Amino acid sequence: MEKYILSLDQGTTSSRAIVFNHKGEIVGLAQQEFNQIYPNPGWVEHDPREILSSEMASLQQAIIRANITVNQIEAIGITNQRETTIVWDKKTGKPIYNAIVWQCRRTDEYCKSLLKDETLIDKIYDKTGLRLDAYFSASKIKWILDNVPGARKKAEKGELLFGTVDTYLLWHLTNGKVHATDYTNASRTLLFNIHTLSWDEDLLKLFGVPKSMLPSVHPSSYLYGYSEADVIGRKIPITGIVGDQQGSLFGQLCINKGEIKNTFGTGCFMLMNTGDEPIKSKHGLLTTLAASCDDHPQYVLEGSVFIGGAAVKWLRDEMRMIKDAEDSETYALKCKDTEGVYVVPAFTGLGAPYWDGSARGIITGITRGTTKEQFIRATLEGIAYQVYDVLKAMENDLGIDIRTLCVDGGACKNNFLMQFEADILKAEVKRPKVVEVTALGAAYLAGLKVGYWNDCEDIKKNKEIEKYFFPEMDDSLRAIKIHGWHQAVKLVQIH
């Protein structure tokens, strides 16, 4: 009886479950979108119960579509939207508040109040590799404890648990027996010391987070526990947990120092493996932990863009300019140029390398002759320009020229966007045959632990490039376009 690996890919806008075979091919996939909740401007929430139900429904559907039984699942890997914060009751398992999503800016003013202390900024960066920003989990936990009646008292009594989405799913899959996470997710909380690989007492005190709330932390490839039979039909080892961006880095097999990828998902996330050396950025990037199979993890340099593929979803859902995400490519190709129109999609602030949480989106260069096609094209180009800014920051930090970029994520299927990216970066862009690389990375980590794959050399046999994009744009035109983009970004930063 052939065996498979099941990967649970819990993202920002949808929950997916994917069944992979030994060749790394998808044999079954199911996906469910769930509601985005916007209680106030700049606030973003999810219902944790909807996250759980959509993931469980996707799990069952993926197995059916793979035409296999649950007995053929060798192991489960989990990958997830990072930083998103859930607090739930230890006894009942019920969340005490909606999940506060990584995009949410409600704690921006609180974080800014702490930024006045420059010694604190340096201390936090030295310990966590992160910036003091509302993006990360710590201030979100504090907000829940301070704003949900009775929450802080319950937390101090040890009655509440915190987790990023992976931890919440793991807890429910094991019927509350396992409260744990991996190094990659822990490293995005602003509470975890990436050098000692432990929760930091000083930071817990700063943000007022009781240590009893926190999960145990382990390598990404690790036996976390077993799914309970009454949850999905049988006990299955859960042997992989990884934050989505580190998952895609592993799935791209960027496991050696200097290898780099960019994921075009809800946001855009560029990660470079820096090996055993944590690189301190001087250009607005983050230092964080890579996926690991042991207690000696590698480090990565990361640039985070908050709005990537979400801009296309905005065109579809809010602006109602397209019916499907794929339509954006069709419309973009109907015009030769935006004629000076720029869309800066800073809907939830600007991430790397600017880190301006109070920035908001802007559209510049509109004339009476501006068309719908140009507006859509400018939105796609706005995604590519943001990736350009991050890549240049990475080049400046490392003193190198980057001429090859591995890509993945849903938006990388857009050929126009990938060609424009190659043109603006003046770099080769490589798109793999399987673009669900985040889920594949989680599957690899889970499979390695149970011996489904022997080692990384075994996995490398699976990698296939589906398409290469090479730069074609004239240097002078590239310079003009990039200058126009940076002029538009300056307008966004005027408050």
Brief rundown of the structure:
By secondary structure, the protein is α+β, with helices and mostly antiparallel strands. 35% of the residues lie in helices and 22% in strands. The mean pLDDT is 93.
| Biggest sheet, spatial arrangement of strands | 17-18-16-15-21-22-23
Could you give me the name of the CATH homologous superfamily of the domain at 4-245? ATPase, nucleotide binding domain
Q: What helical percentage do the residues reach?
A: 25-40%
Low-confidence stretches: none
Rounded mean pLDDT score: 93
Q: Figure out the total of helices.
A: 17
**Under CATH, the topology of the domain at 4-245 is which?**
Nucleotidyltransferase, domain 5
Strand segment count? 23
Q: Mind telling me which CATH architecture of the domain at 4-245 this is? A: 2-Layer Sandwich
Structural class: alpha+beta
- Major sheet: 7 strands, mixed
Q: Termini separation (Å)?
A: 62 Å
Shape: globular
CATH first level of the domain at 4-245: which class?
Answer: Alpha Beta
Oligomer: single chain
The radius of gyration over CA amounts to 22 Å
Percentage of residues in strands: 15-25%
Account of the protein in words:
By secondary structure, the chain is α+β, with helices and mostly antiparallel strands. The protein has a domain at 4-245: Nucleotidyltransferase, domain 5, CATH 3.30.420. The protein has helices at residues 48-65, 108-114, 118-128, 137-147, 151-156, 165-173, 183-186, 201-207, 229-232, 244-251, 310-317, 327-332, 372-398, 415-425, 437-449, 456-460, 475-492; strands spanning 4-10, 14-20, 26-33, 45-46, 73-80, 86-89, 99-100, 160-163, 180-182, 192-193, 198-199, 216-218, 221-226, 237-243, 260-264, 268-275, 286-289, 299-305, 342-344, 362-364, 404-408, 428-432, 465-469. The strands form seven sheets. The chain has a seven-stranded mixed β-sheet, with helices on both faces. Strands 3-2-1-5-14-13 form a six-stranded mixed β-sheet, with helices on both faces. Helix 10 (244-251) crosses helix 15 (437-449) and helix 13 (372-398) crosses helix 14 (415-425).
